[in-house]
Amino acid sequence: MSADMLPLITKALGETVYMVAVSMIISSLLGIPLGVLLHTTSKGQILECLPINRVVGAIVNAIRSIPFIILMVAIIPLTRLIVGSAIGTTAAMVPLVLASVPFIGRQVETSLREIPYGIVEAAQSMGATPLQIIRKVFLPEAMPNIVAQLTTVIISLIGESAMAGAIGGGGLGDLAIRYGYQRFRPDIMIATVIVLIIMVQIVQFAGNKLAKHLDKR
Question: Where is the chain membrane-spanning (predicted)?
Answer without folding.
Answer: 20-40, 52-76, 82-104, 146-168, 188-207
